[in-house]
Write a structure and sequence with these properties.
The protein has 272 residues and is mainly alpha-helical. It is 62% helix and 0% strand. It is built from 10 helices and no strands. The structure holds protoporphyrin IX containing FE. The site of protoporphyrin IX containing FE has 27 residues, from helix 4, helix 6, helix 7 and helix 10. Protoporphyrin IX containing FE binds next to helix 4, helix 6, helix 7 and helix 10.
Amino acid sequence: MPNPLKRPSRPGERSANGAGANGSNGASRGAQGVEAAKEGGGGLVGWVDERSGATGFLTGMMFRKVPKGTNWFYTLGSATLFAFTAQAITGVFLAMYYTPSPTEAYESITHLTNDVWMGEFVRGMHKWGATVMICLIFLHMGRTFFFGAYKYPRELNWVIGVVLLILTLVMGLTGYLLPFDQRSYWATVVANNITATGPVVGPYLADFLRAGPEVGATTIQRFYAIHMLLVPGLIAALIGAHMYLVVKLGTTAPPWLKAERPKNARKKTEVG
Ligand code: HEM
């Protein structure tokens, strides 16, 4: 018979009898596994943990509480993260064969598609993955909007999300030019002209992106640097901040879930 006066142990903590907080549930078993690994003395996990405290952080993150009623819509953020990771990995392989020059870009991509083993597949994954990521990010934004997750105290995470959305669209724009075929060339000319019509900063931004009087050699190099280095770096850093806030602030409960009334609270009675 458990002692009712004793504070129950939290997930990741060991209780006196060695069982996790909730007896035999999966989360506590997982936490016990981490604990066991930490106590494994000379083990690699124990060695790293002693020097970094990483398992404490990971246990807190992996076994944190989530509200009742969470559903498949809550997986859209993780799905976006997965799409970004897939883009980063396939992008690395594409960069091994791609040459950012107006005379060689198209040829290097044709070579990759036709001659390199799995080249067409990896290129296809990257191309369709971009569309998938953009669809997922909009769906995830819709979920957080309709569930009211942008409200206090999560406004900052919403703002970070907006920047992530803009950066994801910049990835799409800068990546589109890289094959340097007729379609990508003229689409970039059009996009650049539209940018130039923007108020105040529009013309300066268009000049910066074009990197010269015409869309050409300098543009492709600039787009490549932005697409390969600048924006993915920013996205990765902002995803880190986004995730930190998700873990710190917790997940918003679905709006249809009513707050639970404390057991002894009296029902509100109509007066008059
Ligand atoms: C690269 C893009 C993005 C990634 C990888 C990402 C990832 C995530 C993940 C994994 C979560 C926690 C799970 C979930 O609620 O789905 C989350 C939560 C959240 N995201 Fe994003 N997100 C991205 C973009 C955005 C955008 C565009 C917005 C809005 C403009 C946004 C706003 C939020 C908010 C407010 C939360 C907290 C949700 C809650 O407390 O219920 N995110 N994000």
